[in-house]
Protein 1
Amino acid sequence: MVKHIVTLLALLLLVSGCASRSTTLYEELGGEAKINEIVENFVYEIEYNETILPYFAESDIERFITKFSEQLCVFSGGPCEYSSDTMEQVHGGMNITEADFNLTVDLFINAMNKANVPHRLQNQLINRMTHTRRQMLYL
Ligand code: HEM
């Protein structure tokens, strides 16, 4: 009898442990492969946008891809570390206007649409990406 109770308790613990493990946004998105797809699309969007492209005139695009992907992974709760400067340090001297900030977000949304990311997940990711908006803008 005691043996059965112990087995039952062990099973209950196992089930509750599984139930409480929540899925991360990173997993819901589709992990590294989906983030790579979004970033590839985003770079393409920037490349063909004559307003935003000039901001990247002096940039090492491979580095941007690496750091930006890392950051999306961290923002979505993935198993990564972001290894660069703060958003204020990176963007502070660029004199980014509010209109250009919004346009960049639009380009990012295009990139997610082309990667078939559901809108519910798009909103969550944008929300996490734009919390440092004020520090990036030239106000
Ligand atoms: C939506 C929010 C944004 C996020 C989360 C974001 C994130 C990042 C990250 C992680 C990097 C790489 C940093 C590094 O190389 O160390 C980066 C670089 C860069 N971002 Fe943003 N960014 C955002 C908005 C913008 C906007 C609105 C612009 C311009 C209109 C912009 C222009 C740039 C440029 C030009 C670089 C390259 C900097 C360099 O070459 O040193 N970003 N961004």
Note: The chain is about 65% helix and 0% strand.
Protein 2
Amino acid sequence: MRLLLAALILSASSAWAGTAVEAIAAHKHLGVASCSNSVCHGASQPFRDSDVMQNEFAIWQEFDPHAKAYQVLERPQSKAIAQKLGLGDPTQAAICLDCHADHQPADRRGERFQISDGVGCEACHGGAEAWLNSHADRKVTHADNLAKGMYPTEDPIQRAQLCLSCHMGEKERMITHRIMGAGHPRLSFELDTFTWLHPHYKIDANWIKRKGDWSGVRDWAVGQGVAAENLLDLLLDPKTGWQGIFPELVLFNCHACHKLMKDNSWGPRQGTGLGPGVVRLNDANLVMFRHVLAPVDKALAQRVFEQTRELHRATTQSREATFAAARSLRATLAEALPKVAAFRYDPASLDAILASIAADGDRGEFRDFAAAEQVAMASQSVILAFENDGKLSKDQAGALRAKLDRLYDAVKDENNYSMTRFDATLKELRAAAP
Ligand code: HEC
Ligand code: HEC
Ligand code: HEC
Ligand code: HEC
């Protein structure tokens, strides 16, 4: 009955009100071994006349870090982190397994399920219990699969929610400043870039026919909006957003605190309106979302700017003021996100975005490393979109790629970040753009 209910809720896919984590856990997980047969997804070469390549397992196992995510927990680095937190063996610690494996409760694990498979197929595609036997049938539509609990990884909003549940943390699986303090690497994520780092899929005419539209720039834009929403949801949650008398520090700008005192590097940032010596929320995704929203709805983008400033101001006043400001901004984001997801970014709007990002640089907005890092990944998305639009000659594309490499170089080491160098490189990139 419970499963039937879950299936019913899921079948009205857009009406699914739960989180990505809940949707993934709605059905039993049968394990990677249930997908990896050589006539299923375990082929060594792509199949010729199949909708999908069928060598997904081989690609995942060989190239995708998700396949090794559990083994990471066996490393000395993980043992050291867990020891400092008093967690014991990290391969047994729920807080580590939540993100480094497909951590389902015992009653949601099929016979072939193995926790050591790490972030396996069903950690992203959803528990296969109800669709495993039917999904390969040519007569079965994608909508049928979704109704049976397959997760809509093609949908940018829902994909962003899924990826960010581990790559940023969410209420039920949180990466805290304490975990960072014990030595966990800082997390950073950009949906379009990360979707294409180790792909086991290709988007072609056949894919579009079955699953609808694809746009890398839209994915980038949507990813920023979902990350900004997630930041506010965490801040608004009294359990995860606060630790004792302090707010959860992982939501703030790391280098607001972690910098050398001799540097004297403070300077104003219009986007925060804050003076020197104040801890700032990490607003990198909010800054980026404002840029991608501008071509879609200028007034709404201006509202995001003002409400972000108001939120920064409220964090210097009180918890109540912070909650009120976060709620207003959260409502604006909820209004804006579907518009961004439905928008088609043409070359002119890309150009406008690049121009307004560069103008932000002139105003000193990329003083904070986290925002600069997002700009580098954003530039990559935009350049790729220019290339895909056929707007660039080979020489232009080569020149832009070289500038992009330099921009990435400027954000390679967060401990040696120089805004002046970054802004100069960003200007060069802008000048080389069509
Ligand atoms: C909210 C999700 C989340 C939680 C909780 C979490 N991790 Fe991670 N961890 C990640 C992600 C995502 C990465 C990869 C970061 C990247 O490369 O962008 C990572 C990377 C790591 C790395 C570096 C791996 C490498 O390849 O260099 C180690 C070590 C690690 N985690 C250990 C742990 C341990 C131990 C725990 C439990 C105390 C833990 N993690 C909890 C998400 C999480
Ligand atoms: C980290 C998340 C993640 C993991 C883990 C993962 N996938 Fe995927 N998979 C995706 C995304 C994202 C796409 C592309 C979007 C789409 O087609 O829905 C995709 C696409 C696919 C496709 C192509 C679908 C199509 O319609 O063309 C297949 C088949 C597939 N995955 C199978 C697997 C198998 C088998 C595994 C395990 C060996 C696996 N995936 C593991 C995220 C993941
Ligand atoms: C269940 C948690 C989980 C989910 C869901 C998840 N990831 Fe990951 N991801 C991880 C962990 C943990 C690592 C680090 C693994 C390692 O270091 O071996 C990682 C690593 C990666 C990396 C490698 C990063 C690098 O620096 O090379 C990429 C790319 C990535 N994930 C993309 C995605 C995308 C795109 C999605 C959504 C479709 C996604 N992930 C969903 C947990 C997750
Ligand atoms: C409000 C200030 C503040 C912010 C913001 C902040 N930290 Fe910290 N961080 C601290 C303090 C305080 C300590 C504890 C220092 C100690 O134990 O002596 C610390 C410790 C650490 C340590 C351990 C350093 C060591 O040598 O013991 C790491 C790593 C770390 N933080 C990473 C981060 C990351 C990553 C971020 C951003 C996501 C961040 N911090 C944001 C104040 C901050």
Note: DSSP finds 21 helices and two strands in the chain.
